[in-house]
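hey team, just a heads up i'm posting the complex here instead of the shared drive bc the drive is being weird again. everything in one block, sequence lines first with there labels, then the predicted structure for the whole assembly after. its two chains so it's a bit long, scroll down
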Amino acid sequence: MKPLGNRDFDSRRTGSSADEAVPPVRKRHSAPGNLKWRRLLDRIAEKTIFSFAMAAIAIIVLIFVYVGREALPLLWENSEGATVAATFSPPFTWQPVSGVPKYNVLPLLLGTFKVTLIAMLIATPLALAAALFTAEFAPPAAREWIKPAIELLAGIPSVVIGFFVLIVLASWLQAVFGFDFRLNALTAGIGLGLAVIPIIYTISEDALTAVPRSYREASLALGASKTQTAVQVVFPAAMPGIAAALVLGFGRAIGETMIVLLVSGNAATFSLSLADPVRTMSATVASELGEVVFGSGHYRILFFIGTLLFLITSVLNWLGDRFNRNLRARLFGSA
Amino acid sequence: MNTAKSLKAACGGLLLVSLSLFAGCAAPAERQTITVKGSDTMVLLGQRWAEVYMKEHPDAVIQVTGGGSGTGIAALINGTTDICESSRPMSEDEKTKVQDQRKAVATEIPVALDALAVYLNKENPVQQLTMEQARKIFQAEITNWKDVGGPDASIVLYGRENNSGTYVYFKEHVLANGDFAEKYQPMAGTAAVINAVTKDPLGIGYGGIGYASEVKTISMAKDASSPAIEPKMENVLDNSYPLSRSLFWYTAGEPSGAIKQFADWVLSPEGQKVVTEVGYYPLRSTAQTTKTP
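-- predicted structure starts here --
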């Protein structure tokens, strides 16, 4: 903390070096009136920050209101057979541009969850093992670079991941497994998994390192090995944080658009096979909203899908937040 | 004192610079920017037209984007494009919407001819299909290549998204307005269809003839008793290729001013020469006039 420039200049001119003992010039100005002024400034700053925070919340609410509002007329309108009931009643096909449009969203829901589950099955073991390793076993020097390296994966634009899977991984997987379809649920799931790994990793690693040292020390003092401590003491203690990591990763995967748009094959199949192409909700909105006639039944259905996605990810984020609070309450005794 | 003076000078300079910048911006704003939007089949063609035209008319500014015929028609209805490129004729419903929103009649200008080609991977031995076979394939009534003279392997379907004019054209003319098979994989553009079919030995796709490099385009027969016709210029000009179609421009109201100039140039022998260069076929009238010396 260097004093102000003014004083610096003065001291240099007088050649005095004992200026550290001199009380800062500024202090003399802090009269009671100045204090009042500062309090006012404080209040203004506080209100400004508060209003910014409120604006962020308002934006989220408005997005929901506007997306929902476009879908709402589905409840009483029936243009081209587009109703809420139509989105869940047979036939189980998505053919919105047709003589008789078919708006069943179940193939899209099934496809979305199928791809997301595959992504989670691939990402969870990898991310958790990596988190456990960096938090408990890696020497500090290794931890210094492993964590940022994995987090860097989160910074790769999803279109780049998608492109990599489309050009390289898809051909390779087809050659290995002999799929009929080059682009299918598995390739999309793997691509999504790549996007989700850094999220699960970062959050669960933070949860593991948040476990107090005393837990480990107590465990080691009782004669447990390093592995026993990590797996049976630290990991269970961080469980709510890990649950939060999984839930947030799931939320990210379900809303991800670009990767699935590129590598899922985009056929709205109603099947459980991993080797069939799939069409997800997000990819459907992305590829069809650009062309659809404003205010038509198809348009409203797409907004309905958007509303569904919004609700699903909101609930997942809320759950993730709850889990994280539980973790803090459990480790430090307060939420 | 000195600083104050130089500050003044700097301000003056800044003002001058910004003024000249403003003037610089204002000048090209007087030139009319023509926006062209729509069919992905035609986006290459539109861009090439714009390039050549702008070289000859330095005062013209033309922006060309794709997105699909449906996107272009929606843009024409919403008034966000001057010219809409479409690989299918506008429906009556869409024409009414143009009338309602733009208070002008949608004007149709056929600008080129295209053979909607069926693409196969180069390794695929199949040389020709009938329209009926193509319909059965895309509706999953035929799912194995051996049923149409190919190897014993399942057929993988690729095509365009439902915002595409080509998608609608194929649906109307090949599928007789039926639905595509469940496992039909829609791609974001014709280039993506070509890419998929190039990579997939068992793939089949469709799209404009102008894109058909790296893949095989097969001959199509109207029915089992008629001969299979290659997608070639003369077969499109005499309409013997079953999937011959026109490519259109649409404007809201009769084109005028810079737009009319551009449209007239596109229909001129010079504009139609570009059509051939890009890989599509010139209109019948100009094809004949260019042949006569």
